[in-house]
Write a structure and sequence with these properties.
Blueprint (H helix, E strand, L loop, with lengths): L3 H9 L43 H12 L4 E5 L2 H13 L5 E5 L4 H9 L3 E5 L3 E4 L4 E3 L4 H10 L3 E7 L10 H9 L5 E4 L16 H4 L3 E4 L1 H4 L7 E5 L6 H11 L6 H36 L6 E2 L9 E5 L3 E3 L10 H10 L7 E2 L3 E5 L6 H17 E3 L21 E2 L3 H4 L6 E5 L12 E3 L4 E4 L3 E2 L2 H12 L12 E5 L3
Helix pairs in contact: 2-10, 3-4, 3-9, 5-6, 10-12
Length: 485
């Protein structure tokens, strides 16, 4: 069996001189940088072509399909984004209606724009919450079924599971519901590339009936940033159309360094998954047990969730030593862990912090996190009921306030000469021509063409007050809307 990384290393040592791209000539002579120039090649003899795979890359993709229990698998070197775009464009025709979770990644909205699709949103159930904080919950099969009955012309369903926060939906039941209508289910399982390799984690979407599954290897597996996989299953989808969009949207100069990192990730999964994931599950469970004794910070656990995500809620925590017992925010926890303990978290919300883990985490790293959180927790107090929270403004972390869709994303751009820019605080009731989102995770709170609800305005104002940057806006603190819209 031949692996791409091994073949690249052999070629690096072979003495071949390249009169071909790339321009660094597999040498660091000019830059002096410690980068993998030696294995960075283009499509030369013996190394196959991602866009017309017949040799080593074809075999590598087939190996990935076996490991992930998929009918067909494709390497993605433009991240999960290119997989999501190709899947949606390949499963719909221009102007089709699509059912999508409102908490989908922005790339789904970009696909809606590119094909001028008519989105029907399905909103996540309200997840674990308190007065101050909540996390988006699951999408249920019943919700999907009701929407499919209400809109019989829906041509595809797009679901995100697990979510950025680690919440998992009942993918099998949803897939069965979708397939009764003879339409495809596209599963954005970008954050679940580690699913299916140990009973500690859920099965992956290929095993649960999804027609297309997208995995971001770089998020939770040992693969370089920008690497992902697209899997196809069954005969409902037109696989040739999805392949066509992959060829259109993926770089015509795919990185062999990135492809080699995918292949190495698949190799270790094929050869050592039981050992790797047995250790990983044990380390995670030990960490969760040790953190279960925190008194003021809370480790989130729900009915269905990804145990690799360590999500800490700060909503009940207050700063000790203050007469008012001021609330302790996710931002404060994020910065304290980073600046005092040198532990860089994935992201901070107003009242939560996410630590992402992977099979590559060391026991020492986990122990450092446990010690830091235990020490921080010991200095905190129970927060006053309303400390740091204005009860008149609503729940900042609550699921997306429902904006009314007036125009499609494509239609709204016809009015670019009839817009004005106003303060976010004044935009309630206006029709937006811009996105607004917090990154990460990059899930839009406002989508172009929506009439902005008062609840969304309150959310954005509170995010801004807590120091979060509102992304997607051309002008900070302001948003472009239709004039007299």
């Amino acid at each position: 069996m031949e692996y791409l990384y091994e073949k690249l290393r052999q070629y690096e040592k072979s003495g071949h001189y390249g009169f071909h791209m790339p321009g660094h000539k597999r040498s660091s002579l000019l830059t002096g940088a410690d980068l993998p120039y030696g294995i960075d090649i283009t499509e030369i003899a013996g190394f196959d072509d991602l866009h017309h795979a017949r040799g080593i890359i074809k075999e590598a993709q087939e190996r990935a399909a076996r490991v992930y229990c998929a009918g067909e698998t494709h390497y993605l070197i433009n991240g999960s984004t290119v997989g999501i775009l190709s899947a949606i464009l390949g499963c719909t025709s221009r102007g089709d209606r699509i059912l999508m979770a409102r908490n989908c990644h922005r790339s789904v909205y970009n696909a809606v724009f590119l094909n001028d699709l008519q989105p029907v949103y399905i909103y996540p159930e309200l997840g674990p919450c308190t007065k101050k904080a909540s996390v988006n919950g699951e999408i249920s099969a019943l919700q999907v079924e009701e929407m499919l009955e209400a809109y019989p012309d829906i041509r595809a369903v797009v679901l995100t599971s697990p979510t950025y926060d680690g919440i998992v939906s009942d993918v099998r039941s949803i897939a069965e519901c979708v397939h009764r209508k003879k339409i495809p289910m596209i599963l954005d399982e970008a954050h679940g590339a580690h699913f299916g390799f140990h009973s500690y984690f859920p099965a992956n979407g290929n095993e649960l009936g999804a027609d297309i599954v997208i995995h971001s290897l770089h998020k939770t597996m040992p693969s370089l940033t920008q690497t992902a996989l697209l899997h196809m299953n069954g005969d409902i989808i037109d696989r040739s159309r999805v392949r066509m969009y992959l060829h259109i949207l993926q770089s015509s100069s795919p990185s062999y360094v990135l492809m080699a990192s995918i292949d190495e990730c698949i190799r270790v999964l094929e050869q050592d998954r039981e050992k790797i994931f047995g250790r990983y599950a044990a380390v995670l469970e030990g960490t969760r047990q040790k953190l279960g004794g925190l008194r003021h910070l809370r480790l989130l656990e729900t009915k269905r969730y990804d145990r690799s995500k360590l999500l800490f809620l700060t909503d009940n925590a207050g700063t000790a030593g203050h007469k008012e017992r001021l609330g302790y925010t996710g931002k404060q926890l994020y910065h304290e862990l980073n600046e005092k303990y040198m532990l860089q978290m994935e992201m901070a919300g107003p009242y939560h912090v996410i630590a992402m883990t992977s099979p590559c985490d060391s026991s020492a790293g986990m122990e450092s996190l446990i010690r830091a959180l235990t020490e921080i927790d010991g200095k905190l107090s129970i927060c006053d009921k309303n400390a740091g929270f204005d009860s008149n403004k609503g729940d900042i972390d609550k699921v997306y306030s429902r904006n009314e869709q007036i125009y499609s994303i494509g239609e709204i751009y016809k009015f670019t000469n009839k817009t004005k820019t106003i303060s976010i605080s004044e935009c309630g009731g206006c029709i937006s021509t811009e996105y607004a989102y917090i990154y990460p995770p990059g899930i839009p709170l406002i989508v172009p063409g929506e009439r902005i609800s008062g609840g969304t305005v309150q959310q954005l104002m509170q995010y801004a007050e807590l120091g979060f940057e509102i992304e997607g806006l051309q002008t900070g603190g302001k948003i472009e809307v239709l004039d007299n819209g």
